[in-house]
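Annotated sample (chain length 271).
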Amino acid sequence: MHAASRSALARCVDHLDSLLGRADSVADAAKTGTELFDCVEVLDSDRALRVAVAEASTTGGQRAQLARDVFGGKVGEITLDVLVTAAEDVWSTPKEQRAGLVELGRRAMLKAAQLDGKLEQVEQELFGLARILEREPQLTQLLVDRTAPATAKRSLLASVLYGKVTPYTEALALQAVARREHGPIEDISSLSELAAATRGKRVARVTSAAPLTADQRQALETKLGRIYGGEMVIHTETDTSLLGGMTIRVGSEVIDGSTAGKLERLKAAMA
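Output written by the structure step:
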């Protein structure tokens, strides 16, 4: 996002948090998240509307009134308040405003999970789903098929998730595959990281040659916390092809301490 959009999003996030903090209701937060996702669908289907609601040449008051005219009576009070606030502010482009509304919907849904005591579970489920998509390239390919309608992609993923995850995880995942930002794996992984951030933590994805013990996980969390200056949550998976050791990914940074990685570096040095 450009600077103007980042500032607008930050103000909208603060406003959303304030509204949901006063509501303090799982139902209100989940409803707001769902409605914001639905409103983005409306904007995606109507080019003239999505341009008008972010048009910098009109006043914030005019854009806010347009949002009230279009969505008033169709969404809850909190959702309408968020939409009006977003319309009043200045965004760099209509596309970035829509991306901001998606982010606000995700935050509302994660707030609902937090109030319901299921935020950590949602984080783990999203991480697990991203790993399933890594192991199932045929499923992933169907989800990125540009010729398939969004409804078909949602139905496909819903059939995979049915009865296996919380409603919050399902809602977040279905929205992500219907309106991709990058790829399904990357987008759902980023949702897992957003869930961790909502808990005040950063994610370290650890792939080890053998399963980590509880003591090893704790020691690694503590060490990474010192390195990155904050609480960490570790998502683990096992890959015997590493031969020994582990790889650690935090954001875009990768630490390769695996035996396979060391051998590759040794081969390169000797070539």
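Annotation: The radius of gyration is 21 Å.
Annotation: Strands lie at 202-208, 232-238, 246-250, 253-256.
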